[in-house]
Design a protein that fits this description.
2 copies of one chain form a homodimer. Chain A contains 15 helices and 18 strands. Chain A is of the alpha/beta class.
Chain lengths: ~425, ~425
């Protein structure tokens, strides 16, 4: 299968722009980028007029089944949100509900130009199935908590579930599905468990998804408990020997940032969720200066409320300026890289996240000829500050078109909506 | 003309919700709201299934011609943004360019559910014409600066232009167009000019649009210059005798807020622009506690970059939680009221901004049956946190449909885009 994009403007992962370019996708990879039309015949040619072709977007932290709880718990403090609303709601979960929500979420993400996401939740078989059906990529992890001190790996059912997932799904679906390990958070995991989870990750070359210093109280309670920060706690317990994907990172110390940087960990910035739950604002400047790999995440729909990663990029950019006053600190390209190449790096996808010959054709085509995106002086700036998901004209993963001009190519969207509505209609009645 | 909305969910300006309701629009007003289908025949019936009917949205502060400069000056500090980019760009303005931009902006606002806006700029004849053509409402003011000390009203050409505008357009187009006076800002206006401008406003019952304490330096330089804050300066010079529409209000003191409250002034919150230009975050809690009428504004597209007022409501809500940590301080309804009833109050439109029998039929119908808005537990919460402009299925002003299911009813959208692109293509070449 050969698909040629003709005379299109390309926005690369580093923010560079090439106009009037040709880009050829052969099967699942980009085979040519240039100013000359390549020779040969093509199965499909796509006119690039008024369009912008970008590397696909990565959602670095989410919980896709939580679209079930979108709008269910609003205007509450985090502790009441969790204990009065979310935990009881999660207690009622069952596989069909998770599957229906994961299907809806997959569709929503595709519509917003997402090509891959990192997920931490449970009923992961259902999440894997929805992801495979949708055509998306994902690093999926079983959210693991371990409150029992000195429990052994062989007695930890959640850990064993992770191991099972790894065996069944890691690197399946042509490498689209990867399994990460998970440590839910410092406050929910005993030191011994951190050890065997990270041992397993190191042994099998897996990433570990964690929540890290999301709230001030979480950060400070850890210091009271152990005399160290959550980051130092994880370091002491061997977690950073594996590539860590650390969500939130709102209350990190400078030393925490050094630990992340020297261990090649990724900090996932979730600006909407951190604002909405009153957690605060990640210190982006300091993390960038420390050299940490930084990506963007939506968190779950219960605290966002959409899982639109384009919104997070815009929000991260303006929030950074507004809270520091340093409006010229970052160029727009910084946020484009967060959204694309840094995401692929976080997920261990060495041949993705870049618009480059030989790389996977994970691409988003935006229609820039819309009222709210005119005029265009600099396509990179326009992308960051003007576009939203309504500009997404096409989402392509591994050379396969998943969505084009409002139509889903892999998903029966009416059935997905109907299934989801059936479940949410009665979910809280039982 | 009789239009009946059948079995629709109504979100009122105070956040209350009525399901399965009937709402009848007769000519330009709402004539019936109830649970029973009204008798009679109707020119049009609209099925309310999956829809949410809201009061139309007010954009409290913008400069519509600035869509010309959307994306033109990015990632700069405010002073360089203004002096190196925006002021020189504005020096090149000419009527056709302003008209083309105002037409594009009108379309963009209609698509985002805006029914009325407050504008401060120049070439106002062009802005009035675009507004009248579009079917929108607006309070339009000629941005007035006056650097000459003790200049007399009769020698102030900008003031005289405002007077001219008032005579030509105030309360025209069936009351849709109102003319406000304008005082650009404290730093750009001499005390004597504040006097004659506010005298004129008082004499003719007009509002005065001002920029107020947008940046810290503006606020502090005023204190150095006059020994009082910008708000106190305006009070001393009689400005608050008229209804003031004060944009930004980021750096107000508690006493400033008292002055606004006791004089019935409106503070316009522009969260996106204030973040993006590094100005900071308005103290919403304190303004609300002081009893100030608070609305939302996009500011111009050069600093936003869209003029989508729905985005501002969402942003105001999450920003407030994130910067204060008080996630339960405001219900969603607070922001709905800012977006609707408070806007009508600000603009002196006594029979608008409410869904109420006898009031103007300024309505927005949202399609809630979209991926990113499912499920719906509380329509008011869903509206604030989940919807965006892609949910807007209809915008109606004075009973007239301006936009429905992607189609503009009053505007030739292809011509508007073509005209705008022609102008912006060459704008900076001369």
């Amino acid at each position: 299968m050969k698909t040629l994009f003709e005379r299109i403007t390309i926005l690369f992962e580093n923010g560079e722009v090439k106009r009037d370019a040709y880009l050829l996708v052969e099967d699942e990879r980009i085979s040519y980028i240039g100013e000359e039309r390549p020779d040969g015949t093509f199965d499909r040619t796509i006119c690039g007029e008024g369009k912008l072709l970008c590397p696909g977007f990565y959602n670095g932290h989410t919980h896709v089944p939580m679209t079930l709880f979108r709008g269910y718990a609003e205007n509450l403090p985090l502790s009441r949100w969790l204990h009065e609303k979310i935990f009881p709601a999660e207690d009622k979960l069952y596989p069909e509900a998770v599957h229906a929500a994961a299907m809806l979420s997959a569709a929503e993400m595709i519509k917003c130009g997402t090509v891959s996401f990192s997920d931490m939740y449970f009923f992961c078989d259902e999440i894997v199935d929805a992801t495979v059906q949708s055509g998306l990529k994902a690093n999926i992890s079983r959210s693991t908590v371990a409150f029992t001190p000195n429990i052994k790996a062989e007695d930890d059912s959640r850990f064993l579930e992770s191991v099972e997932l790894f065996k069944k799904y890691h690197n399946t679906a042509n490498g689209r599905i990867k399994i990460d390990m998970s440590i839910h958070a410092e406050y929910s995991t005993m030191p011994a468990s951190c050890r065997y989870i990270s041992d397993f990750a190191v042994q099998h070359g897996l990433g570990i998804q964690i929540h890290l210093s999301e709230t001030r109280s979480e950060h400070e309670e850890c210091i009271s408990r152990y005399g160290v920060t959550p980051t130092e706690f994880f370091e002491q317990n061997g977690v950073f020997r594996a590539p860590v994907i650390a969500a939130h990172c709102v209350h990190l110390t400078d030393n925490d940032m050094q630990i992340l940087a020297k261990n090649g960990a990724t900090a996932v910035h979730n600006p909407a969720s951190n604002l909405k739950l009153g957690s605060g604002v990640m210190r982006l400047s300091e993390l960038a200066k420390a050299g940490v790999n930084i990506t963007l995440g939506t968190d779950g729909a219960a605290s966002n409320n959409t899982i639109d990663i384009m919104k997070e990029a815009y929000l991260a950019a303006i929030l950074q300026k507004g809270t520091t006053g340093r409006t010229d600190e970052f160029n727009s390209s910084f946020f484009v890289t967060m959204l694309t190449a840094n995401g692929a790096k976080m997920q261990g996808r060495a041949d993705a996240g870049h618009i480059k010959e030989g790389y996977r054709a994970d691409l988003v085509m935006l229609d820039m000829d819309m009222l709210h995106t005119l005029p265009i002086y600099d396509p990179c700036d326009s992308f960051l500050y003007c576009t939203n998901s309504s500009n997404v004209a096409m989402t392509m993963v591994d050379g396969k078109i998943l969505y084009e001009n409002g139509e889903f190519k892999t998903l029966d969207i009416e059935k997905i909506k109907a299934d989801f509505k059936n479940i949410t209609k009665t979910y809280f009645q039982n």
